[in-house]
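Researcher: Here's my situation. A collaborator sent me these components and asked whether they could plausibly form a single complex. I don't have experimental data yet, so a predicted model of the whole assembly would be a useful starting point for our discussion.
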Amino acid sequence: MLSTARAVIDLDVPGPTISRHLYGHFAEHLGRCIYGGFWVGEDSDIPNEGGIRLDVVEALRALDVPNLRWPGGCFADEYHWRDGVGPRQDRPRMVNTHWGDVVEDNAFGTHEFMHLCELLGAEPYVNGNVGSGTVREMSEWVEYLTRDGDSPMAALRRENGRAEPWKVKFWGIGNEAWGCGGNMRAEAYADLARQYATFCRDHGENRLYRIAAGASDDDYAWTETLMKAISCLGWTREPRGFFQGISFHYYTVPGPWHDKGSALDFGTEDYYATMVQARRVEEIIRGHAAVMDVYDPGRTVGLVLDEWGTWWNVEPGTNPGFLYQQNTLRDALVAAVHFDAFHRHADRLVMANIAQTVNVLQAMILTDPGTGALVLTPTYHVFAMNTGHHDAAALDVHLTATPTKAVGEGELERVSASASVKGDTALVSLTNLDADGPATVVLDLRGRAVTGTRGRILTADTLQAANTPQASAAVAVHDFHGVRTTDQAFGHGLQVDIPAHSYVTLELNLA
Ligand code: AHR
């Protein structure tokens, strides 16, 4: 079915900055994300620096990874950081009861994580343990990482080989406190979070950005409780309040939780149901933002989507606790529509982290446990195509005549779009969600002259296309030539013809 949408963009009216942290990442001690994914150990045949895989680092550097959240997720609330520092052979072992019930030998700990962040050029986002930890333990971790001079934790860090303190900004106060993080009620967690945040000090020049563990999906009541906890009076030496950010988690899971569907083996109806779920992220961002606006009209508290992505049944034959899933063009389109929503809410949403970077859920990279071969997923390519949006100013895209499709009781808008501008370059993102037919988008570009365009497209013959070691470019980025100039009454007109199930970016040179 041929569809035409129209998009008016005022190139000279820049909106809020799209934080690069909307392109953040999440790496948990879960399955083969850390062990086998990032970490192979110094004795591995796989080229590594201090045990960290260099092929993975190199691939991720192309994405300009802004931050990396670690060590969980649910694992964060059973992680005791002191077990992961000091000589590796002396580190105690533990059982990762959340994820696969496997033994964790703590080979990858604080120093290894900070080294990984340095190699990636990413800011660390450390998630502390509220569920089974103590206030003292969390407070000392902050001191260990960030304090200089004469202090017990700074001395311990030096003993362990690191003289200078690190700079750590993002700090999570627990994770999913309503569930795996302790099964707390919102009020109970809010009080605990205030207590923990109080003792997460700013040492020296380091300034923490404390993130309270927020809601699941559309639990707006949880957000409201946290917002009240921030605003109600208390003594704090931190003039910015107890927390600077509040998180929430939203996964795209169209099927029932016990049978989420296959990552590879799905039909067109499953695809559309997935897209409806994916686009729902915008309604949920809007819902949390509306609650926050009541208590924080000046928008000083950041909304942080610290876990998002598709969650399918694990690949047959793999450990159910390892959450290993394949990644297709469908996953890439899920990512594309998420980013459009993120850009539109850049005034409140300050960070979003895909779950998870390597070998877990909607990964950027899959590594073969046998050969070690590395594959870039379709989702990776969406992140790569969007680096131009990092820290750019959001542009409103007034989309009209958007074609829709009835899905179940609702309707899916089949074209998704967003745009940003940075200096003399604008980046327009366009997704045609139609499974079978092309879409035409007429861009009416106003306010600045367009002197050149460069298009790129991510697509494949089928929605089920995935990259594997045998066919690593089944879903790949290609130059896109479906753009032609068209007359517009007020501005520069571009007609963009987008094939079925495709993601397109247009880089515009502006005078
Ligand atoms: O990303 C996998 C898990 O999903 C995380 O550990 C948890 O926070 C969420 O439920």
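Model: Some features of this prediction you could bring to your collaborator: The first strand starts at residue 3 and ends at 10. The chain is about 25% helix and 30% strand.
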